[in-house]
Design goal:
CATH class: Alpha Beta
Structural class: alpha+beta
Protein name: Peptidyl-prolyl cis-trans isomerase
Distance between the termini: 27 Å
Organism: Salipaludibacillus keqinensis
Radius of gyration: 17 Å
Length: 165
């Protein structure tokens, strides 16, 4: 079994370390069983939907002072049954790829060949981190899915690091 930690490094201003084990608490997570079946507009970003819900909720309740209430809600069904993923784009944005970056290489452990795609494709991708409520220990810790779901049945597995090139 490999490490459950993944780094983003290479041609970035800020190398970062990702722990997919905590993504269950991330509001940007998506259900992989339904995500690729849903109709989305070009340039769709799941985090926009979350921000929209938060905005609507604030308007209904009225403006309140900012606080760190640490209101974390996790549906038990998410923990035990769903296959989940998160968009890669926010993590790539936080790493700040350099202006001459063009591609992303997903380094895979074991006997698996590395996988590369354009930076633009990577920004649209989804990283799977659980299957039927279980972390991806055997062939993870993350899986790469194209945003259109074209590789849903055969995601890129065994990813141990992400290198912006």
């Amino acid at each position: 079994m490999s490490s459950m930690i993944v780094s983003i490094r290479g041609l970035v201003k800020h190398p970062i370390t990702l722990d997919p084990g905590v993504w269950i608490f991330d509001d940007r997570k998506v259900d992989l069983n339904t995500y690729f079946l849903e109709e989305r507009e070009e340039g769709y970003d799941p985090s926009f939907e979350q921000m929209g819900r938060a905005w609507d909720q604030q308007r209904q309740m009225g403006a309140k002072p900012q606080s760190n209430g640490n209101r974390i809600h996790v549906d038990k069904k998410d923990l035990t049954e769903k296959s989940l993923g998160v968009p890669l784009a926010p993590f790539l944005e936080n790493a700040s790829p350099l202006s001459h970056s063009e591609s992303v290489r997903f380094v895979r452990h074991g006997e698996y060949e590395d996988f590369s795609c354009s930076l633009e494709e990577a920004k649209k991708s989804i990283l799977g981190f659980s299957h039927k409520g279980k972390p991806l220990k055997e062939n993870g810790p993350i899986h790469f899915y194209y945003d259109d779901g074209s590789n849903y049945d055969h995601p890129v597995t065994h990813i141990e690091s992400i290198i912006v090139e």
